[in-house]
Amino acid sequence: MGGFVSKVRSVAAQAATAVKNAASALWASITGAARAAARYVSALFRAAYEALRRAAAKIPKEAKIAIAVAAGLCLALCFVLPAVLAPAAGTGAMMLAPGGAGGGLMVLRSAFEANAGLYFNLLHCAGPAVAAASLII
Fold first, then answer.
1. Cβ of 119: how many Cβ atoms within 10 Å?
2. For the whole model, what pTM was predicted?
3. What are the TM regions of this chain, as residue ranges (predicted)?
4. Mind spelling out the 3-state secondary structure of 20-63?
5. Contact, 109 vs 86, CB < 8 A?
């Protein structure tokens, strides 16, 4: 019986070593592929950066200033201006949907005030999700 147990232990040790070697080889393959992908992406970004840098060098200084001013105006019109004006005008004020619709769903106060009757009709007939959706449209 002792010979059988030692044979099983020997086979188990060989299997464990084979699994360890296979896992190690798989890990090396995965990390090698990840490094190759990282080198490819890095080279791609470097090439794009160089192309943009060369193109930007050809743009006159006045055009660069005009582009910067236009980008600043776009940012101001899209983000800063509404954030400043909305609370003052009351158009961006949010409130919890009345009637328990959606369990804490936020809706625009101005949309609710404009369509309160429709909102409550939809709330009782079709449910809270449809009623809240009516304020979005």
1. 23
2. 0.35
3. 63-85, 116-136
4. HHHHHHHHHHHHHHHHHHHHHHHHHHHHHHHHHHHHHHCCCHHH
5. no
- Output the CA torsion sign for 45, 51, 57, 59: negative
CA atoms of 52 and 27, how far apart (whole Å): 37
- Two tokens, residue 126: 């079709």
Residues 119 and 130 sit within 8 Å (Cβ to Cβ): no
Tell me: the pLDDT tens digits for 59-104?
888 888 888 888 877 776 776 666 666 555 455 677 887 876 556 7
- Tell me how far apart the terminal alpha carbons of the chain are, to the nearest angstrom: 81
Q: Pull the structure tokens for residue 24.
A: 């190690």
Token reading at 116? 């309160």
Q: What is the CA radius of gyration of the chain?
A: 33
Tens-place pLDDT, residues 12-51: 889 888 889 888 888 888 888 889 999 998 999 999 999 8
